[in-house]
Fold this protein.
Amino acid sequence: MSLITIIDFPVLGDGRGALVALEAHCQIPFDIKRVYYIYGTAQDVARGFHAHKALKQIAICLKGSCRFVMDDGKDKQEVILSTPDKGLLIDAMQWHEMYDFSEDCVLMVLADDYYNENDYIRDYNIFIELSKTHERF
Ligand code: TYD
């Protein structure tokens, strides 16, 4: 099973450049309740190292690049995000780690719910235990 779900966004381009429009329940398959972004990441910093019990997110690299490792407790797969016209689905119960941020990386994340620390699983051993009873599809 692929752990990497990439959504290709339509690019409205003309002689002036490119425009990407994202709407809830259209290009983004959920209600967008929160947007956050990560930038200015120092070299050799890795982020993430958690999963969410219920939260769904789409990560979009608006500038630069970074590498995601996605993990469902059985398999790990990785992908490099380097273009603002593609979004990576970070589904519930997907442990994710981000590496190799370029100096100019701006990583925007759209989330289907507000920030809630209780939705985080930050302990990998607990994630592995919980993932055994989680059916993704
Ligand atoms: P965290 O999700 O742990 O980031 P990463 O996994 O990339 O290292 O968040 C880092 C800190 O920011 C943590 O203290 C929680 C806080 N935070 C918010 O307050 N609101 C948010 O929407 C997010 C994503 C994080």
